[in-house]
Design brief:
302 residues, alpha/beta, Metallo-beta-lactamase, Chain A, five-stranded mixed beta sheet, disordered N terminus, binds zinc ion
Length: 302
Amino acid sequence: MRALVLAALLPALPLMAHAKHRAADPQAPAKVHRVEKVAEGAYCIFGEGGNIGLVVTSRHAILIDDQFERLVPGLLEAVRGVTDKPIKYLVNTHFHGDHTGGNVVLEKQVTAIVAHSNVRRRLETQQAKLEPAKRGGLPELAFGWPDPKEKAYLAIHLDGTEIHLAHFGPGHTDGDVLVGIPAQKFMHLGDIFFNGSLPYIDVSAGGSLEGLLANVEAVLGFLPEGAKLIPGHGPVGTNKDLVRYRDFLKAIQAHLKAHPGQGGKDLDAAFDHKAWSDFKPLGTFLTWERFFDLAAGRPPGR
Ligand SMILES: [Zn+2]
């Protein structure tokens, strides 16, 4: 249930362009999507919710995440503005509703939805509470072990393009998958990377500050210079942005260590905000205080 609440809240994040279009209106807003070319055959589609990646090969397209069900018509229009190739695979970087909401519609036109097995498990659990007609869009190709600490890797070879999917252990959730095209130095990091804001850590779904940091370190360990990085939220980033983000996570870790047992409010008050002013709260959804509570491993409401 909480994940559904989260899904409802996330579109309100100030990072998202065109936030004013957010409404209870069931009609899909006309133009919420903006497409940015990131590398050869790789694009970022901004809208409401998590950033979407689009990979185009000579004969097919691959979509990485899909925001919300009501936005799918506009999303497909944005995709058609780039390519008329059919979308063969849809990859989910993790289970949150602002990244998987479109699954239920898109499953009818893609060959398969691909995700970590914990994404399928979590979506299935959520959907058990829905009436049967509203269920659907579960990943058909689920890879990775139920134990999120087990690393997992999958390569997709499509029309000469090699796309790597990797799970480096729990981070933002217990089913995070990073999607990269090594030949293009391109990667979609899902919500492992929030660019320009505090990162949300889903503590109740296996996420942790340590896990987030371990994921980022793993990526920085092999990332070539000049990489193009799509974050789950925020603008397209560079190696420098990811290093800065890693340093921020380390500073938070050190701060928590220096103030053991303190609550979010006190941790916030004692923090050197000046040194990290480029990390903004996500409106009322993720204040500094709440961020510190999550970073300390305290789920909301405790
Ligand atoms: Zn998320």
